[in-house]
Amino acid sequence: MTANTPDEILRTVTAIAVAETGIPEAELRPDVDLRAMAGVDSVRVLRMVAKIERTYDIELEDEAVFGMSTLDDVVAVVDSELRQAVS
To answer: Which of 84, 27, 26 has the alpha carbon at shortest distance from 59?
Structure first.
């Protein structure tokens, strides 16, 4: 497994979010509440989560997924999962 820095995870997660939501990257700042953005619904969020899980070969807990609202939140959860997988 390769090491992923939070910055690398943010770039990957942002690219996934752009692909799944159609929202331009410039609008997807790390601290913006994704749930409040037009066009982001539960189906798109679930697609994002599934793609993130496949990309990193991890399984995110439902509680963590429901607690995520920003890209920063997603990065923190993915980073934590990756660290747990290594240890």
So the answer is: 84
pTM over 0.70: yes
Separation in Å, CA 30 to CA 13, 17, 71: 10, 11, 5
pLDDT, tens only, 37-57: 888 888 898 999 999 999 999
Residue-by-residue DSSP string for the chain: -----HHHHHHHHHHHHHHHH---GGG--TTS-GGGSTT--HHHHHHHHHHHHHHHT----HHHHHH--SHHHHHHHHHHHHHHHH-
